[in-house]
Amino acid sequence: MRLSPWWLAVCASAGAACSGGAAADRDAGRDGDSSDVALVDVADARDSATGADTIGDASRERGWSYVPGRVAVLTQRNDNARSGSNLEETTLTTSNVAPQSFGRLFSRDVDDLIYAQPLYVPNVEIDGHGAHNVVYVATVAATVYAFDADYPEQTDPLWRQSFVDPAAGVVPVQMSDVGPPGYTDFVGKMGIVGTPVIDPSTGTLYVVAATREGATFHQRLHALDITSGAERPGSPHEIAASLPGSGEGQSVPGNIAFDPRIQNPRPGLLLSDGVVYVAWASFGDADSYHGWVMGFDAATLAPTAVFNSTPDGVRGGFWHSGQGLAADAAGDIWAVSSNGSFTADAAGRDYGNSVLHLRPTSGGALDVIDWFTPFDQMMLNDLDLDLGSSGVLLIPDGNLALAGGKNSALYLLDRGGLGHFSATDDGQIVQKVSLGAGEIHGLPVLWSGPNGAWVYVWAENDWLKAYALAGGRLSDAPAAENTALDAAPRPGAMFSLSADRAAAGSGILWTTHALEGSANWQTRPGVLRALDAADVTRELWNSLIVPSRDDLGTFAKFAPVTVADGKVFAATFSNQLCVYGLLGP
């Protein structure tokens, strides 16, 4: 990979930040030579006869020109703390994001639904095609695309990598292959659902693809060169693991083995301290699954760590509504399990419905350093109100963590002491705040702006709310809320935030949600909204004001938009990536 000296300088100064369809699919390759399953289709943008570069010629005639970008979004929700915030956005402001000046610039067609959040790398030297700002998109058809992020006329991908070969019997996993009858939270293909992660120091994109080859199911970790889509040496790696355990689904007595057919790699991938972490839940609670976390060496893809949340029980999956595992500055891992067996209060090893602080060991384990489980975990389990519907937000400049669950509650935790379990209440944690209505899917975002630090959350069937964070606690009632907009239908709104640090007039809250009906069980039309983060009652723009120009299409459940260098990249279930930005003259 070749990156410009400018981008290398940004990586060097940023340090850890750089390392770091029709029916809706809804939620809850071989080892060695990959040529037998990976079909690379590189879009040649040069004239076949002369070799002249034709990318952007029409765009240049219309006044478009290449401008190197400054900001990279390399992982789901921007960073390993899962903040969901780009605090270096200097182009988009609360003044120019308006119907007359902001809208959809173009779209990019893909082969199926997009569950993964788009990723963005500026100033990439694509092999043979010069420098481009590039947006990377993965689909449930087990395809990864690299698109030019700027030129509207450059509709073909810079490269395209597929991990299937129907002629050879290699196809994406289908929900009908793995899910229980009648389950519609997912439908159709499930080839790639977790957001990839990119290592800028090596120019490598890591992604997990699930395929069926005849009657055999496979999940593989792929490492792709971001300039060409080619597999790195040693890629892909077949994912397999087993641990001692007495729980359900024992492959042999006393042993729990990872089952690639029933385990769903739903959360975004995490890159921390040279290790790629992947986590799994289920496809529609089809038993007997467990919550797995595995680590792989980023250079070799060799396994480095493995953890099972319920080795002596069942379930306890990590799904996070697609949000990635979090990692702190020390390289420790933070995750939230869902409904499942819980015995940790009695010195057991099962951690259903728990916030977990994990630490990798030299022996290949992930040790539980600390944990928190709500006092009413049994009720949450019985009513399918799992805690693990949000993931963990590691709040900067302190020692706090935030999680939320289907029980319409936010849990503010002390990372230095999570509190374990109390049978009577949750008084041992920093704070529990009830929203009063609506399941929480996906993480809130936090912005320290002119009003101080606010935490934004928009649960299903509820209004957008902002809670003040001061003195290490959240306000008991919302500091602000928008009751003028309709309540967001199921599963609620997905968040991203852009701002120029704490500057007044720069904070924008970007949300996507379904317009009506349950997007959990159906494909529903969606809307993209931009709201003033300092005044959530003020909507700046939405994609319905000028629908002929700005329509989002169908809502992509649990996929936050990506904001970088003055553009907003939105995944859809319309087999398109929509790109928004400031309109030309």
Find the structural class using helix and strand composition: mainly beta
CATH class: Mainly Beta
Given as residue ranges, the uncertain stretches (5+ residues, pLDDT < 50) are: 1-62
> What is the CATH topology assignment?
Methylamine Dehydrogenase, Chain H
Rounded to an integer, what's the Rg over CA atoms?
Answer: 22 Å
**How many distinct folded domains?**
1
N/C terminus separation = 36 Å
What can you tell me about this protein's structure?
This protein is mainly beta. It has one domain: Methylamine Dehydrogenase, Chain H, CATH 2.130.10.10. 6% of the residues lie in helices and 35% in strands. The protein contains six helices and 41 strands. The chain has a five-stranded antiparallel sheet, with no helix packed on it. Strands 2-35-36-37-38 form a five-stranded mixed sheet, with no helix packed on it. A hairpin with a 4-residue loop joins strand 9 (197-199) and strand 10 (204-213). The longest helix has 10 residues, at 5-14. The two termini are 36 Å apart. Mean pLDDT is 90; it is low at 1-62.
Could you write a compact summary of the structure shown?
The chain is mainly β. It has a 5-stranded antiparallel sheet with strand order 1-7-6-5-4, with no helix packed on it. Strands 2-35-36-37-38 form a 5-stranded mixed sheet, with no helix packed on it.
